[in-house]
Write a structure and sequence with these properties.
- With about 270 residues, the chain is an all-alpha fold.
- It has one domain.
- The protein has 12 helices and 2 strands.
- The protein has a two-stranded antiparallel ribbon.
- Strand 1 and strand 2 form a beta hairpin.
- Helix 6 packs across helix 7.
- The protein is globular, with a radius of gyration of 19 Å.
């Protein structure tokens, strides 16, 4: 029987694995900081003399940008899993023989990766942003806890869709095209490029209800800047919980279909 200790060990292994990529971590953090300055000045220039954009004041816009830059590596919605490679090589058969369910094994490893990114790639841009600009810090202690829960849900949701893209290799053999389409759509619909409230109301609502994109970035960022207060935060978290449940259920369904179609290639 798989124990909590086994899941904790898998999560710790994921943390250790990504902690070995020190040069990539430093380079990634530097890129996040550079783009943080660029995006900040672009959004502040759009806000202009009015001093606000779509309900965000200047301090909230600054916080939105820098916390978003920190969350990029934590959520990591664009990073493909190695599932597709293991399908092509046939190594996925070994995953089916492990005592830990494949979905849980990959999820624990990704949570470990997110944990390492949180203490490195998240902290660096946020600290730089705090030193360079005026931040809008949460006024309620509860907001910090809600933000942490929102980030965890965002990681789970993003992982679920990356996992399903990896499973698509059972039918497509090469999932790179589907992954590129996901990255393109996610960038525009998640709040990465701009706050979603700048869009027409009907389009923003469609994105929230019909896609998982806002639940991966816009949701934790809205909580971080306390847009709409604690009531809006509760609504956002409810949406994330719903999308996390739907996404994991879809993972299990697609995985069952994939196992039935299993064709081992290359050994």
């Amino acid at each position: 029987m798989v124990t909590v200790r086994a899941y904790a060990a898998l999560t710790a292994a994921g943390f250790r694995r990504f902690s070995t990529y020190r040069q990539a971590t430093v380079a990634g953090a530097f890129a996040n900081v550079a783009f943080g300055f660029l995006r900040t000045y672009v959004l502040l220039s759009v806000a202009g003399s009015a001093g606000e954009l779509a309900g965000y004041d200047r301090a909230q816009l600054v916080t939105f940008v820098w916390v978003g830059q920190g969350l990029l590596a934590v959520v990591n919605a664009w990073g493909p899993l190695d599932m597709a490679d293991r399908v092509r090589s046939g190594d996925v058969v070994a995953d089916l023989l492990r005592p830990v369910p494949t979905l849980a094994m990959y999820l624990c490893a990704d949570l470990g990766r997110a944990g390492f990114a949180m203490v490195t790639r998240f902290v660096t841009p946020v600290v730089v942003g705090l030193l360079a600009f005026e931040f809008s810090l949460p006024g309620h202690l509860l907001s910090y806890g809600l933000f942490a829960g929102s980030v965890l849900l965002a990681v789970v949701i993003a992982f679920s869709w990356r996992y399903m893209i990896g499973l698509s290799a059972f039918w497509l053999l090469d999932a790179r095209g589907l992954n590129m389409m996901w990255v393109f759509l996610w960038g525009g619909g998640s709040g990465l490029y701009f706050p979603l409230p700048v869009l027409p109301g009907w389009l923003e609502l469609t994105l929230w209800i019909g896609t998982p994109f806002p639940a991966t970035m816009q949701a934790p960022l809205d909580i971080a800047v306390e847009r709409g207060g604690l009531g809006h935060a509760a609504l956002v978290l409810a949406a994330q919980i719903g999308w996390a449940a739907i996404s994991l259920a879809l993972c299990r369904h697609v995985q069952r279909r994939a196992w039935r179609k299993l064709v081992v290639q290359g050994g």
